[in-house]
Amino acid sequence: GESVGLHLPTLSVQEGDNSIINCAYSNSASDYFIWYKQESGKGPQFIIDIRSNMDKRQGQRVTVLLNKTVKHLSLQIAATQPGDSAVYFCAENYGPGSARQLTFGSGTQLTVLP
Amino acid sequence: KAGVTQTPRYLIKTRGQQVTLSCSPISGHRSVSWYQQTPGQGLQFLFEYFSETQRNKGNFPGRFSGRQFSNSRSEMNVSTLELGDSALYLCASSLNGDSYNSPLHFGNGTRLTVT
């Protein structure tokens, strides 16, 4: 089946810099995308989502960009902080009506350097 | 509002045994989904329940099963455990399973080790 994949398995950034985490998806029928953050020993935590009728959505310090032409999703974190260190997953959502399920990417480990 | 609660946090079982994991969703959430997380395969969808009915199922063998109770609490069962079943099992709840209006909220998982 089709799957969501990430371009980079690891990313290191300096504290205070901006981070960009990329994700490629392959299912053109996917119409909803979500970014999750997973810290060690915890379950994934919802960060931000975007529907396919949008190309940009902003949250608190985070922005998600969606490029449907090239099936690419990115998460931008402004002024990265030590607490942002975690694994970040993108997920795509598709399915008829209420029978939806998430397909997750392999994850990117973000490390914030002091 | 309390989050998704999974019990137990850790389990150690031997091959051939069976195991039952429990999940209490966020109050008011009627949809519960289960995912398996391993280093090699990442997060994989197991199944989703809504109003005590399984609505969607992933590509896992029949040894993996689940159920949902009238109070939306859910259990998943794995029979005849294999070494490859060692994983973090995550439960997630949402209001109605329609992700547009209610994203999944995950618990912290049950870490299952099969020896």
Q: Explain this structure to me?
A:
The complex is a heterodimer of chains A (114) and B (115). Chain A has strands at residues 4-6, 10-14, 19-25, 32-38, 45-51, 56-58, 62-67, 72-77, 86-94, 101-104, 108-113. By secondary structure, chain A is mainly β. In chain A, the strands form two sheets. In chain A, strands 2, 4, 5, 9, 10 and 11 form a six-stranded mixed beta sheet that branches. Chain A has a five-stranded antiparallel beta sheet with strand order 1-3-8-7-6, with no helix packed on it. Chain A contains no helices and eleven strands. Chain B has 115 residues and is an all-beta fold. Helix content of chain B is 0%, strand content 52%. Chain B has strands spanning 5-7, 10-13, 19-24, 31-38, 42-50, 53-57, 64-68, 74-78, 87-94, 105-106, 110-114. In chain B, the strands form two sheets. In chain B, strands 2, 4, 5, 6, 9, 10 and 11 form a seven-stranded mixed beta sheet that branches. Chain B is globular, with a radius of gyration of 13 Å. The N and C termini of chain B lie far apart (37 Å). The chains are: A mainly beta (114), B mainly beta (115). The A-B interface holds A 1, 32, 34, 36, 41-46, 49, 51, 89, 91, 93, 95, 97-107 and B 4, 33, 35, 42-45, 48, 50, 55-56, 58-59, 90, 92, 96-100, 103-109.
